[in-house]
Structure formats: structure tokens, C-alpha cells
Amino acid sequence: MPPAYPETTAELVTRETVEETVAVLQPGRTLRPRAAKTPKTVPSVTKSEQGHDSESDLTPLEEEEEYRLKTPKLRHETVLRNNKKAVRKRNTKEACPGSYEDLPVLKSKRQSKETGPKKRKAPQLEDDAESFDEQPLKKKRKHAPKTEPVYVIPEVERKETSFRGRLGYACLNTVLRNRKPADEAIFCSRTCRIDTIKKNGIEWVKDLGRRNVEDMLKIIEWNNENNIHFMRLSSEMFPFASHELYGYSLEYCAPTLAKVGALANKYGHRLTVHPGQFTQLGSPRDSVVKASIRELEYHAQMLNLMGIGPDGVMIIHGGGVYGDKEAALSRIRKTVEEDLPKDVRDRLVLENDELCYNAADLLPICEELDIPLVFDYHHDVLNPSPGLSPSEIIARTNVIFARRGIKPKQHLSEPREGAVTVMERRAHADRCQRLPEALPDDMDLMIEAKDKEQAVLHLYRIYNLQPVIYGACDVKFIFCHFMEVS
Questions:
Q1: What is the Cα–Cα distance from 171 to 450, expressed in whole angstroms?
Q2: Cα 339–319–306 angle (5° rounding)?
Q3: Judging by DSSP bridges, how do beta strands 348-351 and 479-481 pair with one another?
Q4: What is the rounded distance in angstroms from the CA atom of residue 264 to the CA atom of residue 166?
């Protein structure tokens, strides 16, 4: 229907002007006057008059919209649309030479307008399942299997030593950790954040610990195959096990832990732990001391459930001095004597550090409380003990080891090449190039180096301590395999 309103004044004026212009340009032509349009109105229909007998159920606005859609568009709009189609057709012919009739019909981007809602495609019925199954599946692209690189390991400078003890590494096996694909990596330090515990729950965190312990079985097997019989366990084996709010007992994993200990004892491997730097028994804050005790209890429970003997020690540093070293040492003494459970105290050993407590600071308290001292050669260089040589320190602490029935243990590391300041020299080098001169012949020596087990194998080759199967080419995480035994 036409709109329910008359022509505007502007439209009437425009028509009269056009007629006069035609009369002037064509004087011999007589124009027939057009009849004036009468406005067409839509009779109003009340609600009571509405029904099936009425001619239309549309409202005035709907009738107006229907009339607008049926009215032909202006010529310039049609020309523009046709020009666009012609350009699109020409571009298609240029892109696809040949018979244009063979090409599928191109649909216009402008879809036809509909007054009603868009219809959705009906879901595929069960009857169409056969035709769907007949469609060919897309084949996956096959990748050639990756082969492990083979490198020629450079020769090392051969040296002599009378040392015949065990060399060990800490926490991570770089060969197993960097296996590809990533889901085949083997390591025992999976951890998380507290936000993840809140999101996934404590059982999810416990499963991380279980997986860490299971991988420890594989690491011990690898160590035994490569003649390494000494290793430090990761303190992140059970994430947040000692936390005040989210901590948990390790009893749930007792069977798997027992398997790890049985395998280590079978091969004669020594397993130890080294709780982190936040373990501060001499802190003036009671909350820090309690958290440190919980951390030691967690490590002791892990070693106990493994069935590890007295050689499975827990090494900690003296910690901070808090402005008064003697007062801090007194608090350490008080905490060990009064607050530590017996199973924790039985495994506790102290270590000299590079900043706060040298060996001379700790030896008196170690001898008084019958706690062994693990001597660190690198720390002694950075923070030496006045009047005490490494040999004298080792002799005094070995007396405590013997009295306690524990195999003596020491730490070895070297500063990075080019390090000058004390803070720069604290960082460990990738590998150690020599054994210390004061090293006793029968001693377990922990190699603290970035290349982990590769640093142990490097010393094996230098001093011909053990046959070597795997080695690395003086680079991080690029591993080399050679067939001949060094």
C-alpha cells in the first residue's frame, strides 16, 4: 500500500517546474495535465473490529514497510548495483580463465531482506548418518621421526686423583627433563601456586607429588645405568606440604615412597635433601621458626617413608645474623635442643655459607650439639675461616660424622668464568674443572653445578673415575651421545 500521507509541498513544486521546462524546450508538444493525487488513508480498525474477516492484519507501520519494499528502487541505485556485478564478474574471469559458464554462480554479499526472523538450518537427522560416514576423512600429515643428534665430544685434560668416593648432583636430571615431546619429560619438581590449589583442590596438588615420586624411580634407574650413586632430592617433591594452611601428610603416597627407597637401597644409592634458604632456625620471629620446623618435619617424613637410613641427611645453612650473630647462634641452639622432634634432629646437619656463617662460626655449635658440618669448598673461598684450613675443618667435622655413624659429605662448586665481585662469584658455574686438594679419599661429594649430571660425568672423564656413556658438548641442554666408553 502507498504511505498514508499526501505528497509534500517540495514534491509538488518540483513537478510543476519540470512541466514548465519541457514546454519551453519543446514548444510543439502539448502536455496533458496530470490528475492530482488524492491521499490514501488507512482506515483505523479498532480491537473489536479485528478478526479473520478483515482484509489485512498488518498495522499501519507494517503496511508502510511492505509498500516501501515493493516500490522499485531509483535508477541510480540499480546502475550502481549492476556496475558492481560487472566488476565482480570481470575480476572472476581474470582470476579463473576459461569457460565462465562452468563456474558456480556467485552469491551477492547483500542478502535479501526479510521481515521475519532468520531461519536456522535444521540439524542433521540420523538418516543422514550413512552419507556423513561416507565422506572421506582428512588424512593427518605424517612427520618424519626425529632422531637424537650425535656429536663428537671433545677431549678433556686428564688428571690424577686418589679419590674413590661418590659424586652426586642435585634435584634435576637434564637429559630426562628435556625429553621431547614434553609430555615424556621425567622430573620430580612439579609444583604450583596457592591460587591453583584454591582452584583445583588439594587432591590435585597431591597428584603432582605422586607423579614426582613415580618419576624418581626412573631417575634412579638412569643414575644406576650411568654409574651415579648419589643424588639430592628436590624440596618441591610435594608442593606446599609444609604450608600452615594448605599443608598435608605424605601418608597417602607411602607405598610409592617405599618403592623409591627400596630401589635406592638396592643399588646402594645415597639420597639426601637440602631445605631452602627460608629455613631459618635462628630467626627472631616465632612464625618463621615454626614454618622452618614444619619444613624440616616434611623432609624427615619423606625420608622416613622411603626407608632411608642415617646417611639421608637434611642440610641447612645457619641463616641470617639479624644484626647480632651471637644472639642468632643462641636461638639456633635453643631451637635445636628444645623444639625439634627427634627424627628431625637425627637427620639435621649444618653447612657453612658464603655470606653469614663460615665454618669457624658453626663448628662450636656443631660439636656442642653433636650435629655434623657439611663443608662447602666454594663457600669457604668466599667466606673463609680465619686460622682454620680446609683440612683442619674436615678433620674436626669428620669426628662428628663418625660418632653419629653417618657417611661424611661435602659440597663442591666453582664460580662462573669472568666473575669478579663476591655477588658474581656466588653463582655456580656450569661445571667443575678440578677436585679440591684437601678432598679425602673416601667422601661423598655433591657437585653443585648448572649442568647437573653432566657435570658429574665431566669429572668422571677428567679423573677416569667411572665409565661414561652419556656426555654433553660444553653447552646447556644440548646433549651428546657417543658409543665408545671413555
A1: 11
A2: 60
A3: unpaired
A4: 14
- SS (HEC) of 226-281: CCCCEEEECCCCCCCCCCCCCCCCCHHHHHHHHHHHHHHHHHCCEEEECCCCCCCC
Q: How many residues does the chain have?
A: 486
Where residue 108 falls among pLDDT bands split at 50, 70, 90? very low
Between CA 291 and CA 279 the distance in angstroms is 8
Q: How distant, in Å, are the alpha carbons of 73, 164, 227 from that of 220?
A: 84, 21, 10
Residue 220, classed as helix, strand or coil, is helix
Backbone angles phi, psi at 49, to 5 degrees: -85, -10
Instruction: Output the nine-digit C-alpha cell for 11.
Output: 514534491
Contact predicate 335/371, CB 8 Å: no
C-alpha to C-alpha distance for 45 and 424, rounded to whole angstroms: 94
What whole-number distance in Å separates Cα of residue 238 and Cα of residue 250? 8
C-alpha 465/C-alpha 455 separation (Å) is 13
CA neighbor of 372 nearest in space, from 422, 410, 342:
410
Model confidence at 124: pLDDT above 80:
no
DSSP label at residue 181: S
d(CA 272, CA 276) in angstroms, rounded, equals: 13
How far apart (Å, rounded) are the C-alpha atoms in residues 234 and 172?
8
Dump pLDDT digits (tens) for 23-41. Answer: 555 555 555 556 555 555 5
Longest dimension (CA), the chain: 138
What's the per-residue H, E or C state across 346-381?
HHEEEECCCCCCCHHHHHHHHHHHCCCEEEEHHHHH
Apex 195 CA angle, 215 and 245, nearest 5: 85
- The grid coordinates of residue 132 equal 556423513
Q: Please, which residues have CB within 8 angstroms of residue 478's CB and are 6 or more apart in sequence?
A: 149, 472
pLDDT tens digit sequence for 304-324:
999 999 999 999 999 999 999
Radius of gyration of the chain (CA): 43
* Helix axes of 359-369 and 325-338: crossing angle, nearest 10 degrees: 30
Question: How many Å apart are CA 396 and CA 367, to the nearest integer?
Answer: 9
Question: pTM higher than 0.85 for the full model?
Answer: no
Strand (E) or helix (H) holding 134:
none
Q: What are phi and psi of 314, to 5 degrees?
A: -115, 115
8 Å CB contact between 105 and 97: no
Cis peptide bond N-terminal to 386, omega within 30: no
